[in-house]
Amino acid sequence: MHIPEQRGPVSAALLALLAGQPVENGSALTELQVLASAQLDQTADVIEDEDLQLALFCLYELHYGGLDGVDDGWEWIPGLIAVRRLLEQSFEKALRTAARAAVPEVPPVAAGGSVSDGVATVLFALAAADTGPSLSKHVAKKASVGQLREFLIHKSTYQLKEADPHTWAIPRLSGRAKAALVEIQADEYGGGRADRMHSALFARTMRALGLDDRYGAYVDAVPAIALASVNMMSLFGLNRRLRGAICGHLAIYEMTSSRPNQLYGNGFRRHNFDAAATAYFDEHVEADAVHEQIAGRDLAGGLVEAEPDLLSDVLFGATAAVAVDSRLTLRILEAWENGRTSLRTGLPAAA
Questions:
Q1: Full set of structural domains in the chain with CATH
Q2: Of 333, 254, 325, nearest to 287 (Cα)?
Q3: Which tens digits make up the pLDDT trace of 121-142?
Q4: How many Å apart are CA 190 and CA 196, to the nearest integer?
Q5: How far apart are the C-alpha atoms of 206 and 216, rounded to whole Å?
Q6: Which residue has the higher pLDDT, 216 or 348?
């Protein structure tokens, strides 16, 4: 991914540090830790802090495809991991608070019957309880072509590497839950066909609307809340202790995907875009109708059946996903309803 523009003192110091060769310690690393700690003390909301979310996003990218021109040796430098942990601790705390506020009463898992069915029932209830504004309905009925482009830009920070954050969980699971996750991920990666990978299908949609389909091309354009949505997945996926949360996240993600993707596809068809543009959404209508059952019962339910203590984390992952997605949706729809762009800047020139 290209090096993004800094958004404040922490991201500026991080990017300046990454421009050099990896060092185990030194004044620059110490300064970065001090800056991060100070910014965390001052920020009103770490979830929507532009500087801190960008810094965390860049730190996570070291564990994915990397950053252009940045030495891969930075990935495991202890000082950088310490900064990441600082940011993660505050981010996780904020996510837990936001999740409780968004879904204050999680239905209990009913006694009797199988544990996995009980967990799935609770997750389906959570999915059905989301009554906030619908981005998919707006896209289907009202969105202009310009808004469709903005919608794709917001989604591109994850969809162009779709499935990767959840894949971190595979070696951390066993038995039924592991088999379920592998089954889901195999579909996400196109069943062995590169052109059918969901990230490739999404890139095709971007090209159909004249957008740059390179991963990270629009990172500078999206607001902190869009980065937070992706950072949340990386937080859950990269920390073994949060394996329950990444499974809960994927379960609710699949359970709230099929119908919205049908509406998204309809929105693109309304503007006469062809199958090349809608294939990504059409694929998810069918695939996620199957995935939601596997993710709810076999992945999340199977995990709790094997490790009952992880139930609270499974529910945290699901409710946090709902909370962050709702905030991003509100941000986008509020801007559109007031005739403004939902991006940090106008539509990038690359479009």
A1: 9-101 (no CATH), 107-337 (1.20.910.10)
A2: 254
A3: 999 999 988 767 899 999 999 9
A4: 4
A5: 13
A6: 216
